[in-house]
Amino acid sequence: MELGCEKHLLSLIMESEVQVGNDIANVEAVRWLLKTQFDRNVVTHFDIQVHFTCSSFKLMKVIGNPSYYRQNMSELLFEHYHVPQVLYGIDALFSLHHNCSKKSENAMVLSFGHHTTHIIPVLNGRVDIENAKRISLGGNNITTYLQRLLQLKHPHLTAAVTLSRAEHLVHQHCYIAENYADELEKWAGVDYFDEHCRQVQLPYNMTSSGSVGSGVGKMDICFNIVKRVQESIAKKKQDTLADDEEKLQQLISIQELLEYEDEATFQESQFSDSELDDADYAEEGEEMEEIIAEFEREFKKAPEILFQPSIIGVEQAGVAETLEFVFSRYTKEQQSFLAQNVFVTGSPAQLPGVRERLCAELLAMRPFQSLFSVTLAMTVFFEELVSAGFGFCQK
């Protein structure tokens, strides 16, 4: 009986419908059940990859991809998909060839990925794999960090701030600051805060009609009445407390007046106390401005993790530090060739301020009056596929 039950359950599992990609109606409702074929940016779960039956697709190889997974992918392509031939290639190099075909012999390629960021030096037309570096941060980390920041700031909207909405906010509002420290100081100003503060309206879910909806409406009315009563009671208590404090201050002033010999000495003491009080209030105002400024830094704080991974506790060097380390591996002449063609590609490269930030970092790390150039990919979503298809046709 047990063996028969196991076979029956196995047959049910095999015959169950598997939904892939856009076939899933509500992703957020079943996100905790989703399975991916990727381990970061490497395909490792081929039992899940089998369910992807696209009419056509192109595969991009990552630097340092283990040969075991590449062998399994090739076997899957030939045995399951029946493809006639396969061309593997690195997407960042395809993008370099597509955008900078005339000056692609010497370049420092900075590839921002979904889970990782790669710095790939190309010298004399050949990729220097030994000096290529990888940072375990990418666009997915920006989205996840922004979601956590917003959930921490708005605990009552934890369920509403989903990963999909956080990703939409990254695409629409996030930017990379040219100088992160100076940007934080600007937000301390009230005028700058009021001008640049952004308000996002989350989708409103209407209550369903019927008996359930009417019951929910009655409960909302009751809650509103209770809330008004509580606010009225709190206001009365606050007014009473303010009156009591005023009377207490008057009694204290009368007591201090009795302690002094004449009224002139009493006035001098009151003047000095008021000066100290004003200074204390000024310090409190500065602290409040700092607190308010921190509440509206999410849209530039989330992308900053690419340059400062320590913000989220990752013990790795950022993009600027890693780029400087790669430059240090070459001679001055080779550094000059590489710095004159710093090519940036990948989806996070579309964030506003990427080029300005990299120019500022290169200006700080390169020698005085040395030349450098930063080029952004024009169309980061499909250019690798177009270039890869063109190269495949040529071959």
From TrEMBL:
SUPFAM superfamilies: Actin-like ATPase domain. It comes from the Eukaryota. SMART domains: ACTIN (SM00268). InterPro entries: Actin, ATPase_NBD. Gene3D superfamilies: 3.30.420.40. Belongs to the actin family. This is Actin-related protein 5. It comes from Rhipicephalus sanguineus (Brown dog tick). The lineage of its organism: Eukaryota, Metazoa, Ecdysozoa, Arthropoda, Chelicerata.
